[in-house]
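Q: You know discrete backbone vocabularies at least as well as I do. I have my own habits and do not want them to colour yours. No explanation is needed for now; the record alone will do.
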Amino acid sequence: MIKIDFEKMGGLIPAIIQDHETNEILMCAFLDEKALNLTLETGKTWFFSRRRNKYWMKGEQSGNTQDVLEVYTDCDADTVVIKVKQNGGAACHTGNRTCFYVKWEDNQWVEHSEPLFDPDEVYKK
């Protein structure tokens, strides 16, 4: 039986969030055992914020939630891939579809996306 190894990584493991239809990587966040259990129990993605030191459900403020369809772990059981249905279009807190919208080109980082919402308005910053 496979058991996720949270201790190897200091209690948190990376979670790669992927669109179930396109296989596009939407984001990467971190889970501890409680966040993984919340994700598996509720069918929504839950993470642990290292910066805010708290649990959060993706989309709880923006409405851009993620419905969990499949969950995989790697051979070392220290990383998960969660395939989701992205609700609301944007997975990134910047308002972009994916967190991976910046590409290295011609010796510089270039943004390749327009936000789908204004994060200052949504998050009241």
